[in-house]
UniProtKB/TrEMBL annotation:
One of its GO terms (biological process) is carbohydrate metabolic process. This is Peptidoglycan/xylan/chitin deacetylase, PgdA/CDA1 family. Pfam families: Polysacc_deac_1. CDD domains: CE4_NodB_like_6s_7s. GO terms for molecular function: hydrolase activity, acting on carbon-nitrogen (but not peptide) bonds. Signal peptide: none annotated. SUPFAM superfamilies: Glycoside hydrolase/deacetylase. Residues 48-228 form the NodB homology domain. It comes from Carboxydocella sporoproducens DSM 16521. PROSITE patterns: NODB.
C-alpha cells in the first residue's frame, strides 16, 4: 500500500513538472534538434514569427469562414488537407491556393497511420501527393499524421518521398478550453517565436475555432508577432543556421 502511494505521488510530481515546463522543454528540444526529423517549431533567434496551420479540410462548413478571416487580416496559413476532402471540394482547395496559402499532406482518409502496414502507409501518402500535384502543380513538402501519431515506418516513408513530418507547438482546440476566448487565451499564453499553431477546418464542429481565430490573430499581432506560412518559417530557420555556419 505504501509503495503504491509513493508510485502515485511520484507520477503526479513528474506530470506536474512536465505541465509546468512543457513549453520551455518543447522549445529547447526543437532548437537543439533532439527530435531529429520531426518538426514542432522553428528556431528563429527570437524573431517573432509564427505559423498558422489547419488540418482536416477542406470542409464547406468551416473552410470558407476561416479563409474569409485570413483574407480580412491578411494572414497566410498552411492547410494540411485530407485527400478525400480535397477531391470532393476541389473549389475550396483552389481558393486556398489562389489566396496565397500553402498546401500540405494530411493523408487521404484520415486513418491512424500507426495501425497501418507499410503498403497502406505508402498508399495514404501517395494518393494525396498525386492528387495535390495534379491540382497545385507541385508535390507538397510537408506531412502531418492524424492526431500526431507516427512511428519509424512513417518517418522512413516520408523521408523516401522528401516529406518533412510537421507536428505543432500549441493547438487551438483543447478539452480544457470551452469558449473561443479561453481558446485564444491558451494559444497566446503558449506561443513563442517560431511556434506552429494547430487549428482544424473540417470533420468535427469547428465553429469555436472560427470564433477564436480573430482573437488569436489580433492578440499575437499586438505582441509583435508576424504570421508566415510553414515554409517561410522553416526557411527563416535555415537562413539563420546558414548565417551561423558562415559566421563561425
Amino acid at each position: 500500500m505504501k509503495r503504491r502511494y509513493w508510485m502515485v505521488l511520484t507520477f503526479l510530481l513528474v506530470y506536474l513538472v512536465w505541465r509546468v515546463l512543457q513549453p520551455q522543454l518543447m522549445q529547447a528540444m526543437a532548437s537543439a534538434h533532439l527530435l531529429g526529423r520531426i518538426v514542432i517549431s522553428a528556431h528563429t533567434q527570437g524573431e517573432k514569427l509564427v505559423a498558422l496551420t489547419f488540418d482536416d479540410g477542406p470542409d464547406p462548413r468551416f473552410t470558407p469562414q476561416i479563409l474569409d478571416i485570413l483574407q480580412q487580416y491578411r494572414v497566410p496559413a498552411t492547410f494540411f488537407v485530407i485527400g478525400q476532402a480535397a477531391q470532393d471540394h476541389r473549389d475550396l482547395l483552389e481558393r486556398e491556393i489562389a489566396e496565397g496559402h500553402e498546401i500540405a499532406n494530411h493523408t487521404f482518409s484520415h486513418q491512424d497511420m500507426v495501425a497501418m502496414n507499410e503498403q497502406q502507409i505508402a498508399l495514404e501518402i501517395d494518393m494525396t501527393n498525386s492528387l495535390l500535384e495534379r491540382i497545385t502543380g507541385k508535390v507538397p513538402d510537408y506531412f502531418r499524421p492524424p492526431r500526431g501519431r507516427f512511428d519509424w515506418r512513417l518517418i522512413e516513408a516520408c523521408e523516401l518521398r522528401g516529406l518533412r513530418i510537421v507536428l505543432w507547438t500549441v493547438g487551438i482546440e483543447n478539452h480544457t478550453t470551452r469558449t473561443p476566448e479561453a481558446m485564444a487565451d491558451r494559444v497566446v499564453a503558449k506561443v513563442y517565436p517560431g511556434a506552429i499553431i494547430l487549428g482544424h477546418d473540417g470533420r468535427l464542429n469547428r465553429i469555436k475555432t472560427v470564433q477564436a481565430l480573430p482573437l488569436i490573430i489580433t492578440r499575437l499581432r499586438a505582441q509583435g508577432y508576424r504570421f508566415v506560412t510553414l515554409s517561410q518559417l522553416l526557411d527563416t530557420e535555415k537562413e539563420i543556421r546558414n548565417g551561423e555556419e558562415l559566421w563561425r
